[in-house]
């Protein structure tokens, strides 16, 4: 199975982090972009690069810095002296898998340069629009916003990410294994086990996975509850939520739930698939108020309350 082959190769280099690897595989199988957040040194960049190496396709890494320009990401027009004409030089965004490393270290103008590419799968340079080749996937990493030298991502861009993952520290046993594997200092080789064509075929099969109307209603009710928690009896959450999730979250939750079921070898979506993936799809789409911040209530806590309250079929 394609997913098992990819997971086996990634586990050769990455110790633990099964949660992060599985979510990244879901993004690969659905075409949804992913934002990984965690402190430095948790193998976020290494995991994304390793996942890209398993696919026989193009890969580009963009290191975001405060002095980066939009043209450094999407490309620009340059003057060709021998011909006396302008020609387009494509930027690193013209790849199948793009690693936006430390995306919150660049100002909003550069982050906004990714918006069109992430949503429309195209970029505009000098008034001409260029389509990006499928599969196209942006996997971004960021350090926590509280650290110095970072810029909060615009809400419009954050919403373009299908999932936002919080990456935690490894266990003691995992850290011992990391130390053992890295003792030699040599890179662990990774085999290319799949192709873009195989990924696109898997996406078509995932789209055909059966989703009962009751599961559809459950997803809609869950997303609706992020906007109107009083409808499910959670009136105390009303002053804590500034904005709920948009219909884009509903679409993403359905796609991710199907991929979640696919990875478990099922041909249908269960409520557990929705519950398992919902925190990653909703945490960055539920915006909290100042009152919630003052009380220490996070979007994760709100989503957990909603999942515990909204009745599953």
Question: Your description of this structure?
Answer:
- There is one protein chain.
- This protein is an alpha/beta fold and 313 residues long.
- The chain has two domains: 195 residues, Rossmann fold, CATH 3.40.50; 101 residues, Helicase, Ruva Protein, domain 3, CATH 1.10.8.80.
- Helix content is 44%, strand content 16%.
- The chain has 14 helices and eleven strands.
- The strands form four sheets. A five-stranded parallel beta sheet has the order 2-5-8-1-9. Strands 3-4 form a two-stranded antiparallel sheet.
- A hairpin with a 2-residue loop joins strand 6 and strand 7.
- Helix 12 runs antiparallel to helix 14.
- The longest helix is centred in the last third of the chain and has 17 residues.
- It is globular.
Annotate the secondary structure layout.
Elements (H helix, E strand, L loop, with lengths): L1 H12 L4 H13 L3 E4 L6 H10 L5 E5 L6 H5 E6 L4 E6 L6 E5 L6 H5 L2 H6 L1 E4 L2 E4 L5 E6 L12 H4 L4 E4 L5 H10 L14 H12 L5 H15 L13 E3 L3 H17 L7 H12 L4 E2 L1 H6 L3 H11 L4
Parallel strand pairs: 1-8, 1-9, 2-5, 5-8
Antiparallel strand pairs: 3-4, 6-7, 10-11
Total discrete domains:
2
Q: How many strand segments?
A: 11
| CATH architecture call of the largest domain | 3-Layer(aba) Sandwich
Question: What spatial form do the alpha-carbon principal axes imply?
Answer: globular
Range of helix content: 40-55%
Labels describing this entry:
single chain; 313 residues; alpha/beta; Rossmann fold; Helicase, Ruva Protein, domain 3; five-stranded parallel β-sheet; two-stranded antiparallel sheet; 44% helix
């Amino acid at each position: 199975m394609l997913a098992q082959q990819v997971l086996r190769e990634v586990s050769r280099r990455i110790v633990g982090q099964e949660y992060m690897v599985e979510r990244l595989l879901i993004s690969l199988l659905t075409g949804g972009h992913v934002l990984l957040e965690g402190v430095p040194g948790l193998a976020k960049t290494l995991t994304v690069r390793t996942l890209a190496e398993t696919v026989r396709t193009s890969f580009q890494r963009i290191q975001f810095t405060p002095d980066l320009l939009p043209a450094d990401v999407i490309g620009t027009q340059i003057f060709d002296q021998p011909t006396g004409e302008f020609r387009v030089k494509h930027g690193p965004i013209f790849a199948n898998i793009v690693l936006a490393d430390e995306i919150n270290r660049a100002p909003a103008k550069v982050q906004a340069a990714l918006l069109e590419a992430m949503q429309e799968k195209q970029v505009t340079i000098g008034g001409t629009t260029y389509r990006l080749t499928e599969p196209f996937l942006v996997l971004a990493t960021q350090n926590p916003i509280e650290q110095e030298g970072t810029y909060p991502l615009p809400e419009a861009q954050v919403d373009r990410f299908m999932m936002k993952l919080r990456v935690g520290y490894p266990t003691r046993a995992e850290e011992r294994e990391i130390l053992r594997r890295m003792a030699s200092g040599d890179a662990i080789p990774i085999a290319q086990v799949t192709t873009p064509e195989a990924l696109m075929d898997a996406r078509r099969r995932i789209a055909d996975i059966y989703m009962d109307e009751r599961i559809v209603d459950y997803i809609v009710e869950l997303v609706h509850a992020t906007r109107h928690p009083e409808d499910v009896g959670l009136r105390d959450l009303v002053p804590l939520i500034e904005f709920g999730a948009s219909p884009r979250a509903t679409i993403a939750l359905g796609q991710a739930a199907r991929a979640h079921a696919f990875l478990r070898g099922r041909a249908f979506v269960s409520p557990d698939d929705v519950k398992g993936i919902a925190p990653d799809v909703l945490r960055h789409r539920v915006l909290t108020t100042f009152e919630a911040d003052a009380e220490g209530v996070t979007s994760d806590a709100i989503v957990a309350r909603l999942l515990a309250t909204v009745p599953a079929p």
